[in-house]
Design goal:
Blueprint (H helix, E strand, L loop, with lengths): L2 H24 L12 E8 L10 E4 L2 E11 L6 E8 L9 E6 L6 E6 L12 E6 L3 H34 L3 H8 L1 H37 L2 H8 L1 H36 L3 H8 L1 H36 L3 H8 L1 H23 L1 H13 L2
Parallel strand pairs: 1-7, 2-6, 5-7
Antiparallel strand pairs: 1-4, 2-3, 3-4, 5-6
């Protein structure tokens, strides 16, 4: 075998090896070369992948250290579970995070992975929460949309302002009437004149107040007595104290009245029983019902007394003769005097009668 054939064979197999390398490693397939180390698989949950594709790179600190292997859409929530593979020497921490970022200006996407700073390692079975970072063109498009919306609002505002100016020039509305209506202009001028007059009056009032203040400070007038005179101040103080005492007395009286009212409401005392006791109320009601009958009886008795008095005045009966006949009166008076004399004689003879009784008892 010639040396040339050996060189050609070596070049051929070398070319095959280079093609194989690019096909398996640089071409983005899931295969790995036999001498390369293993890899770890993780799951990242994104609400939206925004154009991320399988075999897209996974960057750690800007260095590609893995690839996107599979993407699964949750049919219920719509979230996307992205399964990635990382070099085995990469050790994720518990607070690791991931986000989708633009990998080029032409719409390519990549996953930027933060390893984290927590002391505990990440559980491979746990899912990493991912976020989506808008690319420049998406953000610019949204900004342009907002700018267009703002321009439309500005155009509408300018149109409204233009229409308002036209209405004002035509004399419509309050502003247009004030600026272009001659009658309103006259009213405004009159109002301004009235304001001027009022300001002059206010100036005069201010001057008067200043004069009054100067007089008070100089001790002139009754107001100065209230402010400067000690006796007047003491009298006012006494009046205020008396008013306070009267107020306290009024408060005490109000409390007493309140206490009385509470007792009456609770049925205590004469008025409480009178107002709240049902039996007493019924008795009063019955008494009121019997009042006409009682009044009739009183009237009859009064009439009889009147008749009796008339008969006495006429000299009828013993009482009438006693009040009207002098002879009967004198006889009655003499009888009374005789009875009185008899009682006096009996009283004077009482010792003799007593002695005689004792004497007779001795001889019995």
């Amino acid at each position: 075998m010639k040396i040339r054939d050996l060189i050609v064979g070596a070049l051929f197999f070398g070319s095959i090896a280079v093609v194989f390398y690019f096909a398996f490693y640089l071409g983005g397939t899931s295969g790995r070369l036999p001498w390369q180390g293993g890899e770890n698989t993780y799951s990242v949950i994104f609400p939206n992948v925004a154009g991320l594709q399988e075999n897209s790179p996974v960057w750690i600190s800007g260095v590609p250290k893995g690839k996107v292997r599979q993407m699964i859409v949750d049919p219920r929530s719509g979230n996307v579970e992205v399964r990635i593979s990382l070099d085995k020497e990469i050790e994720l921490r518990r607070d690791c995070s991931a986000e989708i970022i633009p990998s080029s200006a032409f719409g390519g996407k990549a996953i930027a992975l933060e390893i984290g700073q927590d002391a505990e390692p990440h559980n491979p079975e746990a899912k990493i929460k991912g976020t989506l970072v808008e690319d420049l063109f998406t953000a610019a498009g949204r900004g342009i949309g907002k700018i267009n919306e703002g321009i439309d609002i500005a155009v509408d505002t300018i149109k409204d302002v233009n229409q308002t100016v036209k209405d004002i020039r035509a004399g419509r509305g309050a502003v247009g009437t004030i600026l272009f209506d001659e009658k309103v202009a006259g009213d405004v001028a009159a109002t301004v004149e009235n304001v001027r007059i009022m300001s002059e009056d206010a100036k005069g009032v201010t001057s008067n107040v200043r004069d009054i203040t100067e007089k008070i400070n100089a001790g002139e007038g009754a107001a100065s007595l209230f402010l400067e005179d000690a006796d007047t101040a003491m009298r006012i103080k006494n009046i205020v104290r008396n008013v306070e005492d009267a107020t306290d007395n009024t408060v005490g009286a109000s409390r007493s009245i309140k206490s009385i009212v509470e007792k009456v409401d609770s049925g205590k005392g004469f008025f409480g029983v009178l107002l709240n006791d049902e039996e007493t109320g019924e008795n009063i009601k019955s008494a009121v019902a019997k009042t006409p009958e009682l009044m009739d009886s009183v009237k009859k008795a009064t009439d009889e007394v009147g008749i009796t008095v008339e008969r006495v005045n006429a000299g009828e009966g013993t009482v009438g003769k006693l009040f009207n006949d002098d002879t009967l009166f004198n006889d009655t008076l003499n009888a009374i005097n005789t009875l009185r004399s008899g009682f006096e004689d009996i009283r004077e003879q009482a010792p003799i009668t007593t002695f005689a009784s004792l004497l007779f008892q001795v001889f019995q």
